[in-house]
Amino acid sequence: MTAPLSTLAPPFRGLWDCGFTPSQELPQFSIRSYLDDQPIARHDSLTRKMEPLVPWMEEGEKEAFLAPEWVFKADLEKLSKLGHRAGGIHTWQTIWGCELREDGSKGGFLHYGYDGRDFISFDKETLRWVAAQPQAEKLKEKWEENPGWSQRNKFFLEETCLEWLQRYLSYKKEGLQRTEPPVGKVNYKVVDESLEVLICQAHGFYPREIQATWMRDGEICQYETLHRNVASNSDGTYYVWLSIDIDPKERDRYRCRLEHQGLQEPLILALEEET
């Protein structure tokens, strides 16, 4: 299934997946939530816990991840009564989300999938359900017979979801004000008797901006240094490494210099011989 994305501002999106077999008392399910296309939390039927995927989601409301198990079970029971279950394992998937755009307008979407295919979606402006498969027509009729169900979905997308979005944005803003200093290390790789590569690694730092340079006898080696782009870690911090080709006999003349917002003064690193 695909979900519409705003071109003006990225949305908060939740993805709920559920697999079900007739012999199970409760469905197996998993939830993954996104903010600005970044995974921020997950929950599944094995851990039965909300697991933050970014540090600032430690404050997230864990109860928001507990109700879907019962919702999924009720949905799948409705589908079975409408003749959509033929035995074996089936999946019932939901993608929902809301958007805050730069012009102040708001958006929301709700899509359902059955066995990996688009099944039915909700149009919150008309309060109608759009069947993507002929098999969804019965469910469409059933849901449109209950106007309260459509009104509750509209309220959820336009009120509840946006409250969560604004709350998570505030968590993110507070979290991004933190600083994490880099942890650095220098090692080397032997090419031949007359050539070595010194490698300076810095990781675990936040924010992203960092100045990393090689120095020879206290002078910056500007042209000989090979930089790698700063990359992100799964915990929201960053890492970078840079290398330089040297004569093994001059190894002791080189230092790696790291400057970062989390450091009170530059971090100067030399190669430490392993024992």
What does this 3D model show about the protein?
The protein is of the alpha+beta class. Helix content is 19%, strand content 40%. It has an eight-stranded antiparallel sheet. Strands 9, 10, 13, 14 and 15 form a five-stranded antiparallel sheet that branches. The protein has a four-stranded antiparallel sheet with strand order 12-11-16-17, with no helix packed on it. Strand 5 (90-100) and strand 6 (106-114) form a beta hairpin. The radius of gyration is 26 Å and the shape is elongated. The chain starts with 11 loop residues before the first strand and ends in a 6-residue tail after the last strand.
Task: Report the helical percentage.
Answer: 10-25%
Structural class: alpha+beta
Mind summarizing the main beta sheet?
Answer: 8 strands, antiparallel
The shape, in one word, is: elongated
Strand order in the largest sheet: 4-3-2-1-5-6-7-8
Rounded to the nearest angstrom, the radius of gyration is: 26 Å
Q: Which consecutive residue ranges, at least 5 long each, have pLDDT under 50?
A: 1-23
Topology, number of strands: 17
Mean pLDDT: 78
- Taken as a percent bin, the fraction of beta residues is 35-45%
How is the topology of this model organized?
Layout: E1 12-20, E2 28-35, E3 38-44, E4 51-52, H1 68-81, E5 90-100, E6 106-114, E7 117-123, E8 128-131, H2 137-144, H3 147-176, E9 183-192, E10 195-205, E11 211-216, E12 219-220, E13 225-227, E14 231-232, E15 238-246, E16 254-259, E17 267-269
Antiparallel strand pairs: 1-2, 1-5, 2-3, 3-4, 5-6, 6-7, 7-8, 9-10, 10-15, 11-12, 11-16, 13-15, 14-15, 16-17
